[in-house]
């Protein structure tokens, strides 16, 4: 048994498939695990001489020849298919096949990762204002008075969900840039001009289920590709007794809401399958209670009160400008990590994926850290961000790279070593939300334009 960055692996597997879990941050140089074309990699500075494993590099063209023992007769052999699938899942942390074969899936991800590192992409813009929905009866005057801007972005495969200050979610098909659907929440009496504003979106793989939350605490569920424009309300919020739902995130197993406005009720956790409320409590946002109430009438996208993200290991990262909490959602939201920020945190910079998250402190120092231990993976170089660069800073991470909007441009760092790579050529002005996947980067500007960079192979 060996340990790679906190992950236990087994040696002694067959040459047909070396079953080790490669950290997702290594994807830009890890090829396909194979029994040929191997190099040996020393694990750990204090490891013994036996603490070596074979980490293998192979071009996609060699995948058809990865069975030197000739136990597999062809790439269509079931053993070959199973082997390719297992290795792909171990390296890329994906379980869903989107292409005809796992070999095709590997080639696509390999080339897309290379494109991202070398800044080979196409650029386009989406304009949600070109698709204005009809105002509900009796709401025409309110709709005219309400400022219109994008607050949340969520990516899943070829689809983008964008949540707006009017409470609606617009869904786009990214390869064609087409607007597919505008999702409406169920209307009810509201407290404050922005109480219906979208405060979080969960877009599940293949876009078969979309969950979005509003500042008033309502949570809606819809299947955006099923032809439905009206969402089903899964949870009825109570903004007076719970406060404003300032951020919302989740996975296919849990939803997490971060509230501000009522002491002792900062965090709520739901079971995503049954939609049952599992946990209520926490004092994380108690110092921001007044700011939470102000969001209902005066929304500032560049100054978020708090942020919550759910990593793939079912850990939730909850952050305010003063403190970070790590919750184990599988253990009834037990706190497994906590840290007070001595210099403060730029809340908009916090994002998580797999078992890491990125953040920038108030001194302008960016870090990538492990979710469970809060241990530092790397520090983003090129010196700390200063002054005006910190105002309105928004960040995200896609596993390979950390991206920050600052000073009118999107900048990119290597998320394993912290090396600065490049800045996007396009200036996008003031940004209200940003998100990234392995293939796409999207950023919404204050004029509602959504900027799209596509690194797909």
UniProtKB/TrEMBL annotation:
Record InterPro entries: WD40/YVTN_repeat-like_dom_sf, WD40_repeat_CS, WD40_repeat_dom_sf, WD40_rpt
WD repeats, residue ranges: 424-457
Keywords: Repeat, WD repeat
Domain of life from the UniProt record: Eukaryota
SUPFAM superfamilies assigned to the protein according to its UniProt record, in alphabetical order: WD40 repeat-like
Keyword check for Repeat: yes
Protein name: Transcriptional regulator STERILE APETALA
Organism: Carnegiea gigantea
